[in-house]
Amino acid sequence: MSPETMSADDQPLLVARGVTKRYGPHIGCIDVNFELFPGExxxxxxxxGSGKSTxxxxxxxxxDPTAGSVGYRMRDGVMRNVFDLNEAERRLLMRTDWGxxxxxxxxxxxxxxxxxxxxxxxxxxxxxxxxGEIRSTALDWLNxxxxxxxxIDDAPKTFSGGMRQRLQIARNLVTNPRxxxxxxxxxxxxxxxxxxxxDLLRGLVADLGLAVVIVTHDLxxxxxxxxxxxxxxxxxxxxxxxxxxxxxxxxxxxxxxxVSSVLQV
Length: 265
What we know:
Number of strands: 10
């Protein structure tokens, strides 16, 4: 199929080429290559210190790479290296086409303003000005993430951890982004709260056709949410493939050890 006859969904949305991040003599991640397509969920897994969070920070432009490039296909169809964008262009991308869900929702929310204000603030950042429409959209999104609409004027500091995480998700999704980065989104939550949040995430990702890069140490989260998986160790990708294939029949001894440790718990 020639590029001229390919649809947008046939072309990668995000392309990492040789992505490397060093901290002096220490390696954060090295020579990472992959493509992410529209609507695809990629899980990056590995133990603490494997480089997965560093890689996520580089992909999302929170860190500049030491080497390599990260290409993103803009809405006009043009693939651009995100590190060639100026600061204003990067901020616009993060407010519109991208979202970032932190493990600690306090990092992704304005804790001192209302739940509705947190959702509405992102809408205002893309030009929304009609108060009634902003509030109506915020109410709709609270409902979609299973937060009682009567809590719209309450501050997130009065919410439980699970509610804060769902509010952070609503804040990220309200501008209809195409790509979401998630850093251990269920970390630190009770098991029952995790299960509810995962069900919500899986439904929203499928309904909205989102592309997602998710970092997690929990292989059960990777299996439930992702189409493909990338296993990292010492900053390098050591195995990648379809999630069920990698988890059911891991090739690398390290991946086999990760999977077996989960089975023994």
